[in-house]
Amino acid sequence: MKRVLLKLSGEALAGEKKTGFDEKTCLEVARQVKELTDQGIQVAIVTGGGNFWRGRTSETIDRVKADQIGMLATVMNCIYVSDIFRFAGMKTEVFTPFVCGAFTTLFSKDRAVEALESGKVIFFAGGTGHPYFSTDTGAVLRAIEIEADAMLLAKAIDGIYDSDPKVNPDAKKYEEISIQEVLDKQLMAVDLTASILCMEQKMPMLVFGLNEPDSITETMTGKFSGTKVTV
Ligand code: UDP
Fold first, then answer.
1. Is 108 part of any known ligand binding site?
2. Which of ligand 1's atoms lies nearest the C-alpha of 54?
3. Distance from residue 69's CA to the centre of ligand 1 (Å)
4. Which pLDDT score is estimated for 105?
5. b vs e for 155-179, b when ≥16 Cβ sit within 10 Å of the residue's Cβ?
6. Which of 195, 69, 194, 179 has the alpha carbon at shortest distance from 138?
7. What is the mean pLDDT of residues 118-128?
8. What is this structure's pTM?
9. From the CA of 17, how far away is ligand 1's center (Å)?
10. If pLDDT is split at 50, 70 and 90, which confidence band does 190 have?
11. Domain boundaries, the chain
């Protein structure tokens, strides 16, 4: 794989605190991504926003406004993580699908690919720019647009299971599963819209636990111990 999109769940970025940023977790992500870029692999990143805000959890305010706050939460996450990456010695650029003044660059495929080819790690903040979507969908969409070889999905859980391992101690983790089966069995590695986009556009996924040691770098080796989602 030469070009990958790494999706970091907001919750995983918060570490044990479950909210805000956990610097140690982000520094560890940076260390591993640098290993990949040092090998010449182009990396684009999407972060979730659940460590700050989820639009659908508000029962009071208008959903469109709630989702706009969620999208802005992902911008904060990307600005933070991109600066941790700079501290770790990488060049970065944050793209958004809407204008954020001088804070970010307005997304276009050409600008994003140019930045990747110049050696930068790029961040896609702000999701799709539209309410009623998720950063999972935004991540698949951008992975397809930049013609990534795969989407790496770093989650709080270490792969896809046949049932919830927190509830069922006998839950079985899949080593490999097709996206069709993920959909048929409603395993929801990513949400439904994102799964369908993955299937239609044949975007493979590697699902793994962000907190497992070296889990990001191992996606590129035979040691990968998460779940491969084939298309
Ligand atoms: N969001 C949105 N459109 C997008 C991406 C995200 O409206 O294209 C909003 C939505 O409110 C979501 C929040 O941003 O709840 C955080 O994104 P994330 O996908 O991380 O939400 P989660 O999966 O944690 O609910």
1. no
2. 15
3. 9
4. 98
5. bbbbbbbeeeeeeeeeeebbeebeb
6. 194
7. 98
8. 0.95
9. 20
10. confident
11. 3-230
In which band, very low, low, confident or very high, does the pLDDT at 27 lie, cut at 50, 70 and 90?
very high
**Closest ligand 1 atom, residue 50 Cα:** 24
Q: From CA 46, how far away is CA 16, in angstroms rounded?
A: 20
Long-range contacts of 179-188 (CB under 8 A, 24+ apart): 179/205, 179/229, 179/230, 179/231, 182/229, 187/160, 187/161, 187/162
Ligand 1 pocket test, pick from 8, 54, 142 with the greatest ligand atom count within 8 Å of Cβ, gives 54
Is the ipTM beyond the 0.90 threshold? yes
Q: For residue 38, count other CB atoms closer than 10 A to its CB.
A: 10
The CATH H-level superfamily of 3-230 is Acetylglutamate kinase-like (3.40.1160.10)
